Every structure is written in C-alpha cells, then in structure tokens.
Request: fold
Amino acid sequence: MLRAAVLIVFLLSVARIGRSQSYNAIYSFGDSISDTGNLCAGSGGCPSWDSTGMLPYGRTHFGHPTGRCTDGRVIVDFLAERFGLPLLPPSKASGSNFKKGANMAIIGATTMDFEFFRSRGLGGSVWNDGSLGTQIQWFQQLMPSICGSDCKSYFSKSLFVVGEFGGNDYNAALFNPGKGMAEARSYVPQVVDRIASGVEALIGLGAAELVVPGVLPIGCFPVYLTLHPSSNKDDYDETGCLRSFNSLSSYHNELLKRAVSGLRSRHAGARIMYADFYAQVADMVRSPETFGLEYGLRVCCGAGGQGSYNYNNGARCGTAGASACGDPEKYLVWDGVHLTDAAYRAVAGGWLRGTYCSPGILH
Reply:
C-alpha cells in the first residue's frame, strides 16, 4: 500500500510538472506593468493625455505604439512566446479571439475599487475604474466565448498572472499632497486581502496555475527619486534607492507572501506561484551587468539628460522635451516608472526558471 501511495504521489507530481510547461492559454490581470493595450482599445484609441500612445513607446519590438508602457514587450508577452501562444490581446479589443489568452490589465488599475479611495479622501487621485474586481468581471464576460460550459476544465490547463497589484493603490496616497506614506501604509493589509480574494475568485472559476507577483521596489524608480529627494544620505540605501518607499514595498510583499501561503493551504489543488518582483529588480539596480544591462537608475526615455536620473515630471517620455536613448537594451528603466523590453525579458526568465519565482513556472 505504501509503495502504491508513493507511486501515485510521484505520478501526480510528474503530471503537474508536465502541465505547468504547456498551457492552452494565458489570462493576465494588472496595471500598466502588464497592459497590452486596454486603455487604447476603444474606438477613439489612446486618450490624448496618454503619452504611451505615441512614439517612442513600442519602437523596439513593434515599431509603433501598442498601448504598452515600454519600448517593446511586457512580461506576459515573453511568457506567451515561451509557451508558443499568441501575444495576449487586450480584453477590450473588439473582434479578438480570447481562447488562447486575454489581458484584462489596464493602465492605472488599482486593487481596491473607487469607493474605497473616495471614503479616504483619495477619490481625486484615482482616475481608472479597472480595479481587480472589475477586471475579474471583464474576464467573466469573456468566459462564454472562451470555454462555453466547460470552463473549469479549460482553465485548469491555462496560466493566470494576477498582478502586480498595489502600486497604484499606494500612489493614490503618495502623490497626494495632503496624504503620504503613513496613509499608504495604513491600508496595505486591505490591499493584500483584496488580492488574495481575487486569486480565490479565479480559483473558484477553475484557475489551477496562478502567478501572483509582489510589488516592485518603488524607492528605486526615478519618478519617486525625483519627486521625493532628500538631503539626508541615510534616507538612501547603498544602491541609491529611497529606504522608506522600499520599506512600503517590502511590507506589502511580506503580507502577500503570507496570504499566498494561506491560499496554498486552502487550495491544495492549485499551484500558486509567488513572483518576487522586488528581489529581481533590486538585484538589477544593484548589478545591472549581471542581467546584460548597463544602467540601473537612469531613464532611457526622459528629459534630455536632466538631473541624476534623466527624469523630469514635466517632460515625460512621449511628450515635448523628452527623447529616448539609442540603446534601450542597456537600460533597466524605460520612462521613469516602467521597465524596458530587455528588462521585462529578464524578469520573465526569472519567473520561468524559478530564480525569482517560488515555485518557478517551469518547475
């Protein structure tokens, strides 16, 4: 009996490994780190204020803007390529076939809904209605066209990427003159609880393979470094990143890891992978050459060499006064907020191999 039980466990583990290396589709949720064009998918195209709808966005891989907040591809594009799937169409793109994948992510998305921010006096800081709950509703609207009446079976063979979520929730307070860091930290537990609830909802719909990324080390990004400078050297770590902002990210990620652990114990039939966005990007800032890059904190598409980071909030990438470097493949940061095509490729590799994902997608 014992030998038979051991054999069954072994065969199940082999089946799981084989399944994790082949997916029939990828479904993605998130914000501007993941958006493949939802903000620009309407009949009017990208909003006039959205500079990501203009060159040099998209120039590296596509040769034109696609609604992605980078010079080329984002992480889910590289995951799709690895598994032989088409690049994920934005869920709002009319006439698209979503059987092989769909991307619900949209620029500016938050985890919490608008009412949450309004109740905290932050309604004016949130301009997007594409919260995590809303994105799950968008996904549910697509389900009949994807899988008919046998969705649980179909989704059990699909990969779900849930996030990252949280960055814009905290930005609502961090970029609000009347609020700030204390306000952002106060609602981290609620944000993490909502992410966990969203993952649980997707498992209820049939998802069995899910990647849940943490948030990035925001204190290493030029937008925060430029808008929140300090004359106190102790406010920066050894790599030049702002300690307090990275502490916020770390707090979120610690709570999220605990939440993922709880989800694993409650849903033994699902494989829930925690993607350590923070650790990898921090390593890329600390040692860019290890990842084939040269520049960690300097922006490729920015304000014509201004300041230490080539970033000026009044001359953002795609607007007058900004220009792009000729070698984005050497840069970690594209526009002060988002990463380059080259950096996203490296991140996808870290998630696939398991270097920065537990367990790795291919494990």
